[in-house]
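Record format v2
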Amino acid sequence: MNFWLLLIIKVALVLGVMLPGALVIIFGELKISAHMQSRIGPYFAGGRFGWAQPLADGLKFMQKEDLVPAAADDKVYKLAPYVVLMGTLAMFVVIPFGPDMVARDLDLGIFYLLAVASLSTLGVLMAGWSSANKYSLIGGLRAAAQLIAYELPLVLAVIGVAIQAGSLSLNDIVTAQSEWTWFGLEATWINGFISPYMILQSVGLVIFLVASLAELSRIPFDMPIAESELTMGYLTEYSGLRFTMFFLGEYVGMVSMAAVAATLFLGGYWFPFVGDDALNFLGPVILLSKVMLIAFVFIWLRWTFPRLREDQLQTIAWKWLIPAGLANIVLTGFFKVVF
Amino acid sequence: MANRDLTTRRRLPAFPFKGLLKGLWLTLKTLFTRPVTVNYPVEKETPVPRARGVIALDPEACTVCMLCARECPDWCIYIEGHKEEQPPAKEGGRVRTRATLDRFDIDYALCMYCGICVEVCPFDALFWSPDYEYSEFGISEMLHDKERLTYWLSTVPDPPALESK
């Protein structure tokens, strides 16, 4: 098939799945947060259960005037939201939705993933710097400090998985998870009840989830936004369509981070007792349900815990997560070599 | 024991992350319980009988004594009246005068629902009604005139029965 045609189809598919996915998560966040606080949440938009509330919110944001502060660095200011959104969307290039359903199965899949994930950090920093606002600047700097601190545990957690699977390609990692082996020791009696990496790499999973919360700057790691101190952090000056892009970027980021976590730790598109042929059809559904599960955990954590202090944030990253990640690598490597 | 060394020594919890897990359990539990809020325009809460919703006026009982207007901390009650001469009850008797109520307005934009007017009224002309749905688009609409206040009288619940001895 024509390369360009294929490209357009792939882009359309990724956008067609991810943007509604983000909307579903936004709606889920509204509803779940409401019920966690003993409220009802959106009720009227769209007729039943307020299902159209995210769409209504988006339309409202789009009607607002697109303001650019007089002292702002025009080009950077206008580009920043798209950098954030692109950084999160580009992660889906390597995420496999089925055995053959991957936009491009790179050999260095994880490497690409982590590189692209930190691209959105750049967008946040751009927004904070170019807004010509003290709140924005401090928010941007905090974001930079936080994302650098948490990039490390994120990578370390992933390395454990890469060592155990013996590959950097996401497709190979999913395949490796479907074969239940304790580092080469066959354990077929329990084969396929649960993704093995959920248990064997559980330390990595926890580190990855905490670090990805921080990467997404979600509560309890939302110091870059911290309404009570910084108004809205790097988002302070944004309005209209650009704010919508940031907003969407946050939730698409949630989808993509959850998809990565699901692929690396929960088995991705793989599900026990589902054959390879069926996986090509059911794969996306399985992956998306795992994504939604992790997104629920993200939302759950957000509405349970208060915001951390800046020094506590750094303490968790440098004193706990990074040593734990290193220990995880050492242990994984040890078992990989011994068995 | 309780106060000792709380500032200097940090004790490790018996079970790590116990507090965090407790919090998570609480939110998860709340997620599956019935919300305490009511979806207002669709469902309505029934106010308790003694709720301070709106003040109702019984114009027949009012004697224009102005006590309520004078006691009102917000000065939100406006009363006007005049004296009417009444024919003597018996032949050759004295002409009596009777106070007649011309205007009795309560400005609910000012009222703070303290209920002093209801308490101070010596002739039981004012009552609390639990009705609360009288919001308006304009602030001047919040001034309820005599007719409107008299209408509220129909929403006043019957007084509770006397306690038996």
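Chain A touches chain B at residues 32, 34-40, 43, 300-301, 303-305 (CB under 8 Å).
Residues 180 and 191 of chain A are 6 Å apart (CA to CA).
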